[in-house]
Amino acid sequence: MGYRVVDTESVAPEPDRPSECRKLSEPGGFDAAAINRFRAEPGEQIPLAYHYHETQQEAFYVLEGTLSVETPERTYEIGTDDLFVVDPESPQRAHNPADADGPVTVLAIGAPPADGDAVPYDPDDE
């Protein structure tokens, strides 16, 4: 048997991200999925770019605030304690709008782990 407790504040934020991103999979010894905690101030986005994944399914669980997720069809508003799921090959851009009342904190889970699987998406190309 094995158990781990990870103090998420002890995990250094990733450099060069548009919002605070703490990658929790490795410190947790969890290799079946990517687990990241994001904190985005008003005007910050969570991913590096509008994108989709070829094989990864993503889930965003909002811990605090309201997350906006832009898709080609519409923008979704996901509130505290709600879950938003993105299937493979579905473009999205998660962000905290500039006019938001405060930060948004999100637990993002992606399976299978997909480092390098993100494909940039430009809605103007449609």
UniProtKB/TrEMBL annotation:
It comes from the Archaea. SUPFAM superfamilies: RmlC-like cupins. This is Cupin. The lineage of its organism: Archaea, Methanobacteriati, Methanobacteriota, Stenosarchaea group, Halobacteria. Residues 14-25 have a biased composition (Basic and acidic residues). Residues 1-27 are annotated as: Disordered. Pfam families: Cupin_2. InterPro entries: Cupin_2 (IPR013096), RmlC-like_jellyroll (IPR014710), RmlC_Cupin_sf (IPR011051). Residues 38-109 form the Cupin type-2 domain.
